[in-house]
Amino acid sequence: MNPTGLDLPPLLAAFVFGLMGGAHCIGMCGGIMSALTFAVPPSMRQPARLGGLLLSYNVGRVMSYMLAGALVASLGTFLSLSPSAGMALQAFAAVMLILMALYIANWWKGLLKVEAVGRRFWRYIEPFGRRLMPVVKLPQAFALGAIWGWLPCGLVYSMLAWSLAIADPLRGALLMGAFGLGTLPALLATGLAARQLRDLIRHPATRAIAALSIIAFALWQLLTLFASGATL
Q: What is the annotated signal peptide range for this record (predicted)?
């Protein structure tokens, strides 16, 4: 089942959405990326070493996204047993994408209410991450990223709604993996202090273009979904 209703491969779309959400990712995870950099003793801050730590952190983070995608998609297999239920899940995924777009552009912060639910669980997980600081070894960075991947995030929740509609654990994991890879440029730029890229990602015009693109994608998904439903 392709919940997008488009010829555009869903994995490519998820990757692009990750790129578009870069500004939000900087706000959510930029602090920990900077902390990873500055926690390394000055004598050990060679570019290769810092790059390895940042990459290990992000691999752990993306792996957690993929695990969450597989779990949520497994749930979707039970919720979409009937065609009408499957269509409802796809419509829900499209609405969540629209909310994601509004969130990225700072036009409406409704997803903060969803994040608030996640924070109730995050307070039990977050202390495990703090025990890994300061990070000076690759396994530490990977473990910290795996923990930080469960940080409450409206963008991640929107993509998980898409995984739910896919209702296929493997495809759900791959979808979240593609999304996670799309967020890498913004977070690596933060960790490595790539100011020009960071400023471009955070520019209001960039965020507005990203939001409008996602809204157009979601509306096309809804129109295609309703059109297919009308022919049933």
A: none
Contact 154, 166 (CB under 8 A): no
Q: Alpha-carbon distance 30 to 192, whole Å?
A: 11
**Residues found in the chain:** 232
Does residue 33 carry a pLDDT above 70?
A: no
Per-residue CA distances from 144 to 43, 71, 129, 137, 219 (Å)? 22, 21, 5, 11, 37
Rg (CA), the chain: 18
Do 209 and 22 contact (CB within 8 A), yes or no? no
Query: CA 95: distance to chain centroid?
Result: 16
Characterise 193 by phi-psi region: left (phi > 0), alpha (psi -120 to 50), beta (else). Answer: left
Burial of 82 (0-12, 13-18, 19+ CB in 10 A): exposed
Rounded-to-integer distance, Cα 151 and Cα 172, Å: 19
Q: Model-level pTM greater than 0.70? A: yes
Number of H-type helices and E-type strands within the chain: 10, 0
Task: Give the type of residue at 1.
Answer: M
User: Whole-angstrom Cα distance, residue 227 to residue 120?
Assistant: 39
Q: Rounded to an integer, what distance in angstroms lies between the CA atom of residue 191 and that of residue 144?
A: 15
The predicted model gives 16-22 an average pLDDT of 83
Q: Is the per-residue pLDDT at 23 higher than 80? A: no
Closest of 131, 127, 123, 95 to residue 110, by C-alpha:
95
